[in-house]
Amino acid sequence: REEHGGVPKWVQVVAAITALALVAGGAVWWLTHDSEVTVKTVTASAPAAGDSGAVLQATGYVTARRQATVSAQIIGTLTEVLIEEGDHVKQGQVLARLEDSSQLAYLNSAKAGARAAEAQVAQTRVQLQQAERDSQRQQDLVARGLAPKQQAEQARTQMESLRAQLRSAEAQAKSAQAQVAVAQVQYDYTVVRAPFAGVITQKAAQVGEIIAPSAAGGGFTRTGVGTIVDMDSLEVDVDVNEAYIGRVKAHMPAEAVLDAYPDWKIPAHVIAIVPAADRGKATVKVRVALEQKDQRIVPDMGVRVTFLEAERSATAEPPKGVLVPASAIVERKGDKVVFVLDGDHVKQQRVAPAPQTYGDMRLLPSGVAAGVSVVDTPPADLADGDAVNTARH
Predict the structure, then answer these.
(1) β-strands 37-43, 388-392 pairing
(2) What does pTM read for this prediction?
(3) Position 126 confidence tier, pLDDT thresholds 50, 70, 90
(4) What is the rounded radius of gyration, in angstroms, for the C-alpha atoms of the chain?
C-alpha cells in the first residue's frame, strides 16, 4: 500500500529504524572510544649495567636537602628585584631591596642621638679634669694654711659630682649606640640576601609588590622573593616497597639512571633508610647520595635506582629488554599485556615478563622499547585504542 506521495509505509518504517540504529551505534561508539580516561604513566627504561647483580630496583625523584624560599623579615614594598631564574648566587649576595625611607630616617636619627651622647661624655670628662685640678689646688692651699677646709671640701664635692655625671653620660652613650644597632638591624631588614650559595629556581615577586614574612602575609601580599637551591645538596629520595626494604642497607652501593638521560649511569650509595613507613603506599623512603654532580641534574627529575650487592660490580653486562613496574603488567583474556601510550590513545601490547624480579620492577625482554610511556596500574575497563589523559607517576 502506498501513502500520499508514493512512498510505501513499510519503507518509511525501515528508514526510521535504520536512523535510530545509526544514532544509537554512534552514541555507543562515542562513549566507548572518545571518552577519555585519566591514567598514570611511567617510562620503560633499559636495565643499567650491573642490573643482573642488583639486589633491588626502585624509582624516585631528585631532591635538594638544602633549599629555601627567601623572604624579608619585615613588611615592605619591593623597589628592586635583582634575580632571575637560573642565576647563580653567592652567600650574602643581595637579591632584592625594600622601600627603606622610614628605616633610614630612624637610623639617621639614632646616629645623631649617639653623636650627641658622645659629645656630652666628652664635655663632662673635660669638666671633671678641671674639677680634679681645682680640688688638688685647694688641698695644697689648705695644707699650707692659706685656705679654709670648706673650700677644699666644696672642690672635692664638685669633682665627685662630675664623676657621677660622667658615668651617667657614658651610660646614655651606650644606650644611644644600642639604639643605633637596633636601627641598623631594621634598616638591614630592607635588604634581602642569599642565605647560602646556590641557583635561583623560581622568581616569585616583582618590583612594586608588597612582601612580608609568611606569618604576616595575606591578601595580595607576597611571602617570598624567590627560591634558591643548593645544587651540591642534591640527592635521590626513593620509595621502596616495604616487602623489599630488608634488602636495602645503609652505605650499600647503588647506581642511578635519570629518566631524562637513560644512557648515563651515575654511581651512588645509600645514605640512610628513613625509619617511617607510608601507610597509604606501603613504602619506606630511602635516601641515596649521588657520587657525581652535574648541571644536568635538577630537582624533581625522575630517576631509577639500582641497589647493588657490595661484592658485585656495576659494570656487569646488563640484561636485555626494559624494566617496568610490576603494576603496569595486567592480564587480558589470559595474556600478559601492557598498555603503551600512543599519542592521546593507548595501544595494548602483549608481553612475556622474564622470571627474575628486580624488586617492584619486572624485566620485559621484548615487545616494549626503552623510553616509551606505559600505563601504571591500568583500570580494569581500559581497552586497546582508548583515549586517555596522562598524569606522570
Answers:
(1) parallel
(2) 0.57
(3) very high
(4) 40
